[in-house]
Each structure stands twice: as structure tokens, then as C-alpha cells.
Amino acid sequence: MKDVQRVAIVDPSDATREPLRNLLLGVETVWLEAECSRYEFFIDVARQSNPDLVVVSLDSDHAKALQLISHLVGEFPGMPILAVSARGDGQSILQALRAGAKEFLTQPVVLEELLIALQRLAQGRIASDGTSTSNGISKVESLVVAVIGSRGGVGCTSLAVNVGCNLAQDPRHNVALVDLDLALGDADVALDLIPDYTLADVALNIDRLDMTFLRRSLCKHDTGLSLLPHPMQLEDIGLIHEDHLQRVINLLRASYTHLVLDLSKRFTPTDFTAMRLADVILLIAHLELTSLRNVVRILHTLQTEDGMADKVRVVINRVGSEDGEISLPKAEETIGQPVYWQIPNDYKAMVGSRNAGVPLLKHSPRSKAHLSLVGLANDLCGKEQETKKERRSFFSFR
Ligand SMILES: Nc1ncnc2c1ncn2[C@@H]1O[C@H](COP(=O)(O)OP(=O)(O)OP(=O)(O)O)[C@@H](O)[C@H]1O
Ligand SMILES: [Mg+2]
């Protein structure tokens, strides 16, 4: 789970305090420690509640609110302050920042902007506490991994589901898998989950989406992985637009440490949106000609968009499945970049696990496919030591 931020708010106006409070209550990482309707009393409230950050609404009385911010900074120098006002002009922002606020949001506050501000404030606090992680990645940052295939049936869903479950084994992680193979996705089948809600419900409610609704739309597997499934009815695919997906991914990023996106093989606008928002794109291939030729074509297309091709890591699945398969050096020469990861062919474990609807970590925890996918999950989140061991153990299978 992510670190919780204990928040105190001060806003004399019920009309703006209520919606702000409701927005904050929907954010999983927020614990609303105190609420105050008088600027004069808030210093005492802060002393008693000792929050991680405070939200000061300026509009009831700008002068008093700015004075309060200055007092808070004087008494609690390390405590970040978020100022909120309907007056989003440069002068108002400058006054709030000069008084000591670290962030400024315009009323009515939009959830995405609130989440970004909260993340920035938490990161600032972590940095000033000196408690950021050793690889420099802040505790509240999330990693988005898109999985695409170089042809059908190449192993995307198997990889997405199992890497997702493996990532979820770390108690510090909160992992979600989004099935973006909107027409024919089967991540729910691979996990044997019967969802109550799907991406279609999220899209239908996109304008009044809050974190509580969004989190309710995901169903949780007993490995700890949460799934946001593709729409059940084919006719609902059209409900999901690129901007919906952008909103959903940005909101999920704020609640989950890792997002795995299982894309379709049709390179639709939603697939491209997902790839744009991803930090890493795993491009899955086999050591055969059609698949490798498609890798070259896909890389070529992605190179036309700034920064996109740089995020791609080629993963070869089912290594060792055929006698006449193309060699790894030849494959790397063909695609013009090193292969990032190899997953051995492991028919018994993989097909058995898929047919049972049970991920490898429960179905075949000692299989070579599982060990390779554990290594991949570790490598994605920067666990170098374990990864080196996994890499070696996998190469020994070849
Ligand atoms: N490493 C492997 N060894 C053996 N079989 C595998 C391996 N990886 C995947 N498979 C099998 O290949 C089949 C296709 O895998 P999967 O459904 O994950 O591919 P996909 O790319 O998601 O397919 P689709 O194009 O239908 O979305 C499944 O039966 C799966 O069990
Ligand atoms: Mg699939």
C-alpha cells in the first residue's frame, strides 16, 4: 500500500469545503485528519492534529488566509501547504506562494489536479525527510507497463497476468491490470474472475468518476492483483474513447504503484493512448519470421512519435519451442536492438495454468516459465540482485 497522507483542511465556506472534503475522502492515500471552518482556530487544530499537509481555502477572506499560511510556515516549516481559490489569476497564485504555500489549485478542484498536487507535495516531503528510495524513485510514483504483441497468440495476456500477480507479491505494491484488448480480451478468464463492473461502466460514468467508484470497478484476485476488465458486450467497445482511457490511467496511477496494460493487436487509438502513457512498453515476439518482421514494423511506426520507441523492450516468448527457430543473435540483428527478456517455452505450466484460470505462482510455482516471469517482474521494478539470479537461472534452461 502507498503511504497515507494525513490532511487537515480549513475553509469557512460550507459550499466549497464539502466538495473538497468529499474529493479528499475518495483518495485512498488521504486520511482526513481534521476539518476547520475558522481561520483563527486552525493553528490550534494543526498543533493538535499534526497533519502531513494542510489545505487552505483562500476565498472566504484572502487576507486572513494568507496570514494563516505565513503563521503555519513559521510554526511548521516542513509541513506542505496547498492553497485553493476560485481566483486563479497570476497575482493570487503569487501571493499564496509568497506566503508559503507549496501548491495552488483553482476551485472547483478537479480530481486529477488534486492527485498530482498531493503526489508532488508527498514527494517534496519524502525528499526533505531524506526517505526516498535508494534508486531515487519516490515511494508514491507508479510504473505503467504496456504489453503489446507482434502477432496474435504470442503470449501477451499470459505475461501481463503473471507479471501482474508477481508484482503484487511485494506487500509495498498495489498492482492493477487493465484489459485493453477491448473486444476479445481474456484476462478475467486467465484469473477466473467474474467481474461486476468493467471499463464500460467506468466510461459511462467518466464525468462523475471519483476514486471510490473507480476502485469499486476493479475486482481483486486473491494474489492481490486488481483487474479492470474489458467490456462484456462487444457493442460497448465504442463507449471507450482515448480521453476516457487517459483519465482512467491517470487516476489509477495515483492509487496503484504498478499498472499493467494488456493491449489489443489492432493498434487502435486506445492502444496508442496506452502506449503514450506507459513508462515501459513490452513488445512480445517469438523467434519466427512473421513475428520478428512485425517487431521491425512496429518499432518503425513507434519511432515516428517522440520518445515512444525508446520505451520499447522486446521480450521473446516460448524460447526453445521449435527446432528450426531463428537464433537469438540473428533475431537481435533483425530487429536492430537487444532482446530484453526471454521466457522459455513451457507448455505444461503455461497452458495448464491458463486452462485452470490459476496464475503460475499458484499453479506451477516451480516451473521455468514462472521463474522467468518472476525475474521479469523484479527487473521491471528495479530489484537488480534477484533479477541477476533469475536471469542466470533462466539461461541455464536453454
Ligand atoms: N512461454 C510459453 N510456453 C508455452 N505456452 C505459452 C507460453 N506463453 C503463452 N503460452 C500459451 O500460448 C497461448 C496464447 O497465449 P496468450 O493468450 O497469453 O497470448 P496473447 O498474445 O494474449 O493472445 P491474443 O492474441 O489472443 O490476445 C496460451 O494458450 C498460452 O498458455
Ligand atoms: Mg491476449
Task: Characterize the structure shown.
The protein contains 17 helices and 13 strands. By secondary structure, it is of the alpha/beta class. It has two domains: 5-129, 3-Layer(aba) Sandwich (Rossmann fold); 143-395, Rossmann fold (3-Layer(aba) Sandwich), CATH 3.40.50. The protein has an eight-stranded mixed beta sheet, with helices on both faces. A five-stranded parallel beta sheet has the order 2-1-3-4-5, with helices on both faces. Strand 12 (312-319), helix 13 and strand 13 (339-344) form a beta-alpha-beta unit. The model is unreliable at 130-140 and 385-398 (pLDDT under 50). Magnesium ion (MG) binds at residues 156-157, 181, 186.
Q: What is the CATH first-level class name of the largest domain?
A: Alpha Beta
As a percent range, the share of helical residues equals 40-55%
Reported by name, the CATH topology of the largest domain is Rossmann fold
**Mean pLDDT over all positions:** 90
Q: Any idea what the CATH superfamily of the largest domain is called?
A: P-loop containing nucleotide triphosphate hydrolases
Structural class: alpha/beta
Basic shape? elongated
Parts with pLDDT < 50 across at least 5 consecutive residues: 130-140, 385-398
The profile of the biggest β sheet is: 8 strands, mixed
List all distinct small molecules, including ions and cofactors, that are bound in this structure.
adenosine-5'-triphosphate, magnesium ion
Give the N-to-C terminal Cα separation. Answer: 37 Å
* Helix/strand order, N-terminal first: EHEHEHEHEHEHEHHHEEHEHEHEHEHHHH
Q: Any idea what the radius of gyration is? A: 24 Å
Instruction: State the total count of DSSP E strands.
Output: 13
| Strand order in the largest sheet | 8-9-7-10-6-11-12-13
CATH architecture of the largest domain: 3-Layer(aba) Sandwich
Q: Give the amount of beta strand, in percent.
A: 15-25%
Number of domain units: 2
Q: DSSP helix count?
A: 17
